[in-house]
Amino acid sequence: MHRFLPHPILALILAGIWLLLVNSIHPGQIVLGLLLGWVIPLLTTQFWPEEVRIYKPFHLLRFVGVILIDIIQANFTVARLVLGRPDRLQPAFISMPLILKSNLAISFLANVITLTPGTVSARLSHDRCHLLVHALDVTNTEELANTIKSRYERPLKEIFEKC
């Protein structure tokens, strides 16, 4: 069954994304979405270096909610900063030590940081122990690193890595 349907959750997510993109729940679109959700993971299986394991699925749902709220809040904050007094911005790079070990979890962390307006993950160190993050307005770099660790990195460790 695993060879026939390598990533069932991803298949459903892709089908859902397809339905959102076409803005229709017509039966033909549902069938096409399910077909795409099945074929795309099947054709890309060789590019997945590790099997995706979600150890705490309910934490994943809560994590997605946190990300959505943070993205909305950050949009308003960045708009206020940019439209207000951009000359008062204090941009900074911080090197954040990582506790994550899995490639998938590190990738999720880097993407979540980049998705949140005002922050961008810039580089992963060669030893995969530090992530360079740029922030648009930082008054306390240690506070920013602690916020990223508590809101994103620790939940990702619980979700994707065996503790």
Main attributes of the structure:
163 residues; mainly alpha; 3-stranded antiparallel β-sheet; 5 helices; 3 strands; globular
Give the topology.
Blueprint: H1 8-22, H2 27-44, H3 57-83, E1 92-97, H4 103-115, E2 119-124, E3 130-135, H5 141-160
Antiparallel strand pairs: 1-3, 2-3
User: How many H/I helical runs?
Assistant: 5
Silhouette:
globular
Oligomer: single chain
**SSE succession:** HHHEHEEH
Number of strands: 3
Mean pLDDT across the residues is 89
Head-to-tail CA distance between termini: 28 Å
Strand content: 5-15%
Structural class: mainly alpha
The spatial strand order of the largest sheet comes to: 1-3-2
Biggest β-sheet description: 3 strands, antiparallel
Instruction: Determine Rg (CA atoms, Å).
Output: 19 Å
Structure described in brief:
With 163 residues, the protein is mainly alpha-helical. The protein has helices at residues 8-22, 27-44, 57-83, 103-115, 141-160; strands at 92-97, 119-124, 130-135. It is built from five helices and three strands, in the order αααβαββα.
Describe this structure in words.
This protein is mainly alpha-helical and 163 residues long. The protein is 57% helix and 11% strand. It has five helices and three strands. It has a three-stranded antiparallel beta sheet with strand order 1-3-2. The radius of gyration is 19 Å and the shape is globular.
